[in-house]
Amino acid sequence: MGFEVDEDILQDFLVEASEILEQLSEQLVTLERQPDDKDLLNAIFRGFHTVKGGAGFLSLTALVDTCHKAENVFDILRTGQRHVTSELMDVILRALDTVNNMFAEIQNRQEPTPADPQLLEELKRYCRPASEDEADVAPVATAAADATIADLGEADYRQMLDQLAPDTSADSVSEPASGASADNSAASDGDDISDDEFEALLDQLHGAGKHSGVPASAASSPSASQSTDDGGDEIDDLEFEALLDQLHGAGKGPSIAAEEAVSTPAQAAPAQQAPAAVTASAPAAPSADKAAAKAPAHHNAPPDTSVRVDTRILDNIMNMVGELVLVRNRLLSLDANHDDEDISKTVANLDAVTGDLQGAVMKTRMQPIKKVFGRFPRVVRDMARNMGKEINLEMVGEDTDLDKNLVEALADPLVHLVRNSCDHGIEMPAEREAAGKARAGVIRLTASQEGDHILLGIEDDGAGMDPEKLKGIAMKRGILDADGAARMSDGEAYNLIFAPGFSTKQEITDVSGRGVGMDVVKTGINSVNGSIVIDSEKGKGTRLQIKVPLTLAILPTLMVLVGKQTFALPLTNVNEIFHLDLTRTSSVDGQLTIVVRNHAIPLFYLQDWLLKGERQPRKTQGHVVIVVVGNQQVGFVVDGLIGQEEVVIKPLDQLLHGTPGMAGATITSDGGIALILDLAGLIKAYARRYA
User: Fold this and answer.
1) Shortest CA distance to 133 belongs to which of 122, 120, 144?
2) Are 365 and 314 in contact (CB under 8 A)?
3) Closest CA relative to residue 559, chosen from 676, 453, 651, 664
4) What angle do CA 121, 125, 127 make, to 5 degrees?
5) The model's pTM
6) Residue 168 contacts residue 295 (beta carbons within 8 Å)
7) What is the pLDDT of residues 9-62, one digit of tens each?
8) Would you call 184 helix, strand, or coil by DSSP?
9) SS3 for 493-547, per residue?
10) At residue 70, does pLDDT exceed 80?
11) What is d(CA 379, CA 572) in angstroms, rounded to the nearest whole number?
């Protein structure tokens, strides 16, 4: 294993391979729907090829072997010798899962576990043209291609890469066999091969007697030596392969995979020279000048403008910006009490600069939601195939950015919701046809930014939910009584699926039926100060909408007074605020209630929950804050309104950990301390006592 190499080299491989493997998961599912997309076939081939090359440099033999065989399958596919089938994709996706497992082990600095031999055999079978499926013995070229670069040392590996990039000048194209010349001893470490050995290598690559052969003089011509010695612009693997296609015809020249089919350092030099020699002797080859003109021009790569930064450094910077925001808020508060124009201008300038700095630092932590969405094509494909359903996935707004920590926090809840749509939402094809629908169901994922919040949607055109059925299951499981069910609205009934232990499945499967999952979803979304709303129509489908803040580090809040203490309510949950004559409330089954626009809303005095030892007599006039938690609206009576303020969330002291309804603390603009309320936790802990 190659973990003893420089840590920077290993980190570069881990970063690059991680991005490629994420893309491959989505590309492979897309390929199954678009099997004739040549660009996609080439992209997937390059993906496995790149991961294999990096793994070979690190001597990660098990990873190299799996990637190499997968790469060879796509080499066969892109030359038209096989066609994409569901069975072939099953094998390739299993191979990708195996590669991902190996990659996780490498990230933990563990030796990767070799792939299942049966999987490797299946890959090897698909490495052959479809016409040879019944053959007992694979062609010699396939056996040769199974060799890997894993045995090469670092020096040999770099030498091989240098030899893969021949001179694109006219001389080098017309006499590309110069690699065999004695004048090129520096490139081959002084180990020349004879004409007979060179011919044997051509036989190995093309089959005995199937190549044109190269006169010995071509391998030692002065022009060949001159072109090698003079150097010139280099071309990369893909440009080199394009040149072979121009000289041989698309797909008829030796592939890069064949060029890399070496098993010992001593074979590296001739293995790279052979394709060049065949190119020189191709019967239909154009003139050297024309070939050089058609070869892709090599340009210097643009300078890299990105820098990889540890997320801990970004978190530290964000914390410092948060402290600066607190100082800014404090200065704004002090400035409001003074009439000095110069100070006011300075504070205003500081306010603007702090806002810009805050926005810039937040952007460094932003990632596209595609980092989460990218896994769903595979999830939907596998579930549909396992359950015998036909499901199409649509994704909109994949480029929407949100905080990196939110991307990670939302990954598991969104997976649960998508799996739930596949399992509970989309019907079997026959059922859909009987209901007048298309056989294939549709699941639609959307993401968009609205102000300082992100809206995520998961929508399906499946069977929808029956509120009466949900109420019946809840009563059967003891979650709800008959009176409560009779008063419950459809929207409240839909929220029953988030109750712990609730499941609409009668039988237990690998996917569902255990009564876990949806309650975890709601808990996860609430933990990032988000909310989830469900809307469904029986027979038409279901839509879930998730609302989360742009970032977890700085939180917009409504500051309120309860008694003489300041509390912060997350602004994402606040719906409206109004002044109320509290004598106009009414009681329904013992619960204090107000009517707002013909809708009854339960009303609670926050002082009853938060100031138990300092409870004040209830006033006849008060401020009411209507908050939304899930589909439920709740009214809170507070003693005063301070206003909207952006706060930096500070963790609670260890003594306060686990306190119901407390999300954290912050420093207010007047230098005091305010507790940030977790409204969902607060209602869950206290509301039932007053219901």
Assistant:
1) 122
2) yes
3) 676
4) 115
5) 0.60
6) yes
7) 788 888 888 888 888 888 898 888 888 888 999 999 999 999 988 888 888 889
8) helix
9) HHHHHHCCCCCCCCCCCCCCCCCCCHHHHHHHHHHCCCEEEEEEECCCEEEEEEE
10) yes
11) 31
> Which residues lie closer than 8 Å to 599 by C-beta, 6 or more apart?
633
What order of strands is seen across the sheet that includes strand 673-677?
640-648, 554-562, 565-570, 673-677, 662-667
Question: Angle, to 10 degrees, between the axis of helix 265-280 and the axis of helix 237-248?
Answer: 40
Mean pLDDT over the full length of the chain: 74
Rounded-to-integer distance, Cα 199 and Cα 259, Å: 16
DSSP string for 231-271? ------HHHHHHHHHHHH-TTTSPPHHHHT--SSHHHHHHH
Q: Tokens for 278?
A: 């065949």
> Average pLDDT, stretch 486-498?
82
Classify 658 in phi/psi space as left (phi over 0), alpha (psi -120 to 50) or beta: left
Helix (H) or strand (E) holding 420: helix 404-420
Q: What local confidence, expressed as pLDDT, does residue 224 receive?
A: 39
CA distance 329 to 353: 13
Q: pLDDT category, 251, cuts 50, 70, 90?
A: low
486, 472 in Cβ contact below 8 A?
A: no
Question: CB–CB of 140/206 below 8 Å?
Answer: no
Query: Which backbone phi and psi does 362 adopt, to 5 degrees?
Result: -60, -35
Structure token pair of residue 81? 């010798």
Encoded amino acid at 7, one letter: E
What pLDDT was estimated at residue 235?
A: 58
User: What pairing do the DSSP bridges indicate for beta strands 599-605 and 565-570?
Assistant: unpaired
- As a whole number of angstroms, the distance between CA 430 and CA 445 comes to 25
Q: Are 542 and 465 in contact (CB under 8 A)?
A: yes
pLDDT of amino acid 304: 62
CA distance 186 to 192: 10
Closest-CA residue to 271 (of 281, 258, 255)? 258
pLDDT of residue 427: 92
pLDDT tens digits for 282-313?
A: 334 344 343 344 444 444 556 667 777 777 88
